[in-house]
Amino acid sequence: MTMPADRPAALLTMAEYYGTLAGVRALGRAGVAVWVADAARLSPARWSRHATATPICPDPETAPAAFVDWLVALGRRMPGTVILPTSDGLEWLLAVHRERLAPHFRLAVPDLEAVYSVLNKWRLREACLGSGLDAPWTALPENDDALDRLSREATFPLIVKPQTQVGLWPHQKGRVVHSASELRGLYTDLCRSTQVQPALLAIDPGAARPLLQAFAPSAAEGIYSLSGFVHRARRIFVVQASRKILQRPRLLGTGLCFEEAEVLADLAAGVERLCHRVGLDGVFEVEFVEVGGRRQVIDFNPRFFGQMAFDVDRGVNLPLLAYLAAIDDGPALDRVAAEARDAAARRTGRTFCNRVQLRSHLLLRRLAGSAPPGEAARWNGWLRQHAGRVTDPCIDAEDLAPGLVEVLREARATLRHPRAAWRAARRG
Predict the structure, then answer these.
(1) What is the pLDDT of residues 147-162, one digit of tens each?
(2) Residue ranges per structural domain of the chain
(3) 107 φ, ψ to 5°?
């Protein structure tokens, strides 16, 4: 579907994120003018041929107040521009400042209560249980005495993780705790190595306290995801499934390779109930871990996500659905949603692979001596098996520059932080 020329432009930020690049390409190919703003110049989405303009802006993660001021100034010059959230922090920031931004922009963002209900993992657990979805054992110790008690009562391994990535700097997945003797030290280390923005603490004074959650190392290479789009007023719910088969680092990492999976009707229905329960509309991705035959929710992303290009290539144009909902074009939204439902009902045999990061991962593992025999051959064979049916978040024959930028960024990250890259490769 191609948009008429008079449709408003879209603004996407966090240009280093793969979901941003997927959005730029999908909207640009649909005829939408896309502005890509970022604090850094060497970010893949800024170099896409589908980017109409690439202004430099303050970093919303480290300078949120300056970023909001920049947005307001831009909105006064370009009223009616659509803002599409591409990170947890940005989604939360837009929801917090909705009253200030709404006069100038079309915001594809739910209200603050809905956003925080899924971005805070303790609140997400409560919402899941209330919607008929399972969740791992989770505890939120209120003080040192509670932490000591849990160290005696909990089953290990478990993970100490931030309640939310919103307002957290630097972002961290957490710490895997293998025994009771490690718990206090790793809990304290996570607290000391991160900071939470005062703006979040003003809304939720307890947000800086990490939580404890059951951890299943064997599930690291079998995370099941449901992703799609929901619009409650128009009764739209489109969903696809995938399975993460490789991530880096192996225990707590970012997905490198995914395969198609069957949509499990009971989980999809639970996710739809959850969206209605918390008042959520828009793009989503929900991650499940399987433990003892039970699939449990471990994460909910109510925004553009890393492997979103995989959904687009399978016929579900999530960025366009979010854009049409933001401009309130009901007829076009219904048409694109109907096309997406038809596509989601088909299995096409596509896979997803970040080939730049996969090659880097395999090379560093081999140099570090941590790669099991035949690892590189296995993944090279997997790529050959799916040749012609691989979605890559950066490499695209019709849009070459972002792939080249990604190669430079991967090399630069390794050379700038060789010890960290080496440690990660040793751990796998």
Answers:
(1) 999 999 999 999 999 9
(2) 10-109, 137-214, 217-349, 354-427
(3) -100, 120
